[in-house]
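Question: Now follow the chain.
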Amino acid sequence: MRRNVKFPALMAARPPKHKNPKISVCAFDTVVELAEVTPSEFPVAIIVDSGTTKTDYRLAGGKLYRPCHTDIDRFIKRHQGQCIDSRRGNYVTGHIVRKMYRDVMNINDYSNDRFWPKSALHLLKTGMNTEWKDVREIIDQSPSIDLRGPWLEKVAQIDYMSFLAGDPDQRIARYERMTHQAFSAYRVMDGQVWAETHEPCYVAQMLPEGIGHMSFGNVGNYVRDADTSPDRTWWNHLDNKVFSARDYAEAIEGLTQYARPVNQIEIVIPEALTADIPSLEIDRCARVLAEEVSERMAARSKDGSIALPSTRSMAAWTELMTFVEGYDPFEGVPDEVEDRIAEMLESVEACASDCDLIVERIRPSLSRHLEEWRDRAVDFGFAEARSMRL
């Protein structure tokens, strides 16, 4: 199914009635291909029953999809109206527009009217709303901007525009390709749109006496990148434990007397559950620990304290931060992550002045994560295959 859509691009361009090039947010047209599937090609793999609603997860090409609750016409119409929104409601190209802001966020001088319109940087930062007059101007006037001219050779010589230098067609093609990739994460069945998603899971609050609360989660919340919401979710709290959808019985056994179990996730196609929860959990532990120590170090400097961490603690923190940034947890977590976490704990405990770098309340949770990682069931076939790839 082919549809004409608009896509955003950050360009060096000469807007109408301007003599000099500006850093311009633009909207261009392209044709995207939306994959259509039949019910037989798109079977129900998982059913999540929240008690009031049921959500079907369907499987295609080894990936899970969940309903967008909209038909294809409304989906395209909404995208056309939100194609250059940087708000999180722009599910298709919002991440592209937010990346534009990160590209230009350090440019704060408006004295030379570097952006078109002049307030584009502010609009990017605050969540470009297509209903605003300035944003409509971007969409309406993009076809008439000048992308080429004698001024193009000078762009590379301007400090704040040098990253926009080069062939305009290649730059447009890059944004167009990103848009095509974004649309490829959707499927259409019987006129309804489905979006690619991660598998559901259970999130349990671990207390000394057992599980105090259990809720539905999504493995997609493990993703942490520049576009991830800073909101504090279950990911940030080490007293939470994630269970695979197949481990419902194990989770129920740990419930305290006053805890209410959530409805069971019905697994129709077991092969749809592919996430390695133990690996993702120890990776989450390492990243939360690195962030915790980083925040405590920053708090010291804000307090005006000149006390620096010990050499061992600083080295352990640096190694931990560097280590977790060197791999994708969804591709596999190296066994060495355990050693980095343990070294961080030991280095802080070895120096009395560093004890505040890891608050007392999270230490039992750190120990639990390490213990569960050591007791995990190891798939030696997977480990061997991974070592061969490396």
Summary: The first strand starts at residue 2 and ends at 13. The CA atoms of residues 107 and 160 lie 7 Å apart.
